[in-house]
Specification:
Length: 216
């Protein structure tokens, strides 16, 4: 999981990026101007920043002066080569020109995050999940999970206490182009419950989907 700050004044584009990245297992923070962005950068531990240049109160180049160490990808309509060079010279990891395909954005985000990869461990009861190595253990014994099972598990963990629809889980584990039935999610959830002994944690939400429910 990565905590991603999206700095974009167009609310439709901001929302689309946030929804898509959330479905792919990330936590998204949103800002619609430079002041909001700087405030979040100074108060949050952010893993990646998606930054527009043309903002109502400033520009993305100025925000880079408040850089908090997180990698930056410019997402902007400014396609002039001078802007591209300036952005990259200022320390950005990448530069995406609008309009862009959402799948391209996801791929570029994943590339940058892999460069800044960090170890993440999640523990619940007798189970430990290692995001870095895509492994899960119960009482320190390896749990044999398929790739799809692990992707479902990761999505549930990263969205704990949030109800996810079958469609969201399907997109997260199988991808947008998968044409199979949502019933596939039910089968894999049943297997996860059995393998992890999480019958009391993975809740079925009637006519909607599933939620990993953890009481504080």
């Amino acid at each position: 999981m990565a905590k991603i700050l999206i700095v974009e004044d167009d609310r439709a584009i901001n929302g689309l990026m946030a929804r898509t990245l959330s479905i792919n297992g990330h936590q998204c923070l949103t800002a619609y101007n430079g002041s909001e962005a700087i405030s979040l950068m100074e108060s949050q531990a952010i893993d990646l920043i998606l930054l527009d240049i043309n903002l109502p109160d400033t520009d993305g180049f100025h925000i880079m002066e408040h850089f908090n160490g997180a990698p930056v990808i410019y997402v902007t309509a400014r396609s002039d080569i001078r802007d591209r060079v300036r952005g990259l010279d200022n320390g950005a990891e990448d530069y995406i020109v609008k309009p862009f395909h959402i799948r391209e954005l996801i791929s570029r985000v994943n590339v940058v995050l892999r460069r800044y990869k960090r170890e993440d461990i999640f523990c619940l009861g007798e189970v430990k999940v290692d995001f870095t190595n895509c492994k899960a253990y119960r009482n320190d014994r390896d749990i044999s999970l398929t790739k799809r099972e692990f992707e479902l598990l990761k999505t549930l963990i990263l969205n704990k206490n949030i109800t996810l629809t079958r469609e969201q889980l399907l997109n997260a584990a199988w991808g947008w182009e998968y044409e199979g039935e949502e019933r596939t999610v039910d089968i894999h959830i049943q297997r996860l419950r059995k393998k992890l002994h999480w019958k009391n944690y993975i809740k079925t939400i009637y006519k909607t989907g599933y939620r990993l429910e953890i009481t504080p």
